[in-house]
Amino acid sequence: MNRLFLNGALYVLVALLLVACATPQQTVAKKDYEAFRAENPRSILIVPAINKSVEIDAPDYFLSTIAAPIAERGYYVFPVFMVQQILNDDGLSDADLVHESDPVILANLFGADAVLYVSIERWEAAYAVLSTQVTVELRYVLKSGKTGQELWQNQQTHTYSTGSNYNTGGGLVGLLAQVVVNSIEAAVERASPRYIPLAKQANTFSVYWSGQGLPAGPYDALYLQDKDAF
What we know:
This protein has helices at residues 2-22, 34-39, 58-72, 80-89, 95-100, 103-110, 171-191, 195-208, and strands spanning 43-46, 50-51, 76-77, 114-127, 132-144, 150-162.
């Protein structure tokens, strides 16, 4: 019974957090999907991300997070690391060169309908004695594999902070206890910053955000039935 209660409480908490995060974004005007609908892409080629951060491993870590939400949205996604290897073999190991290449040529190389370009704007952690703030900022651009025209774009910034709340209701003892907890959380975050969970969160919001994300693809049950939202 205790386990059932805890699981139920956890689901409610997650749902409330998602609603709290999504509410401010619902006021943004709906994107223009005319070009996207006309193109009607079925397959998406995700090329290596441009890295504007100082974390050299950020592109590979990010690449491991992006395919799943797009595939789950109903699109065929070419295996991202296979794509990366093929591009490397063809002399396109530099992501900047890939992004500067003609999207039509890239798409034809793999037989893709559209090409997704991602720029890692921020992938950073700011450390203090009792707190840590981790930030991931990503910019997404989808281009037609037939014309090179931009079909969709989005940008997401997600942040995780430790040690930001101090509850003084317990007096000095409570405050000291909170300081200890915050320092431990900050130390854990320094050892392993939450880049991957933040990237996954950014990808999910970017893809599923009503009126801003990607319409349901041809392998989703909602295909062509979500035109009011997208």
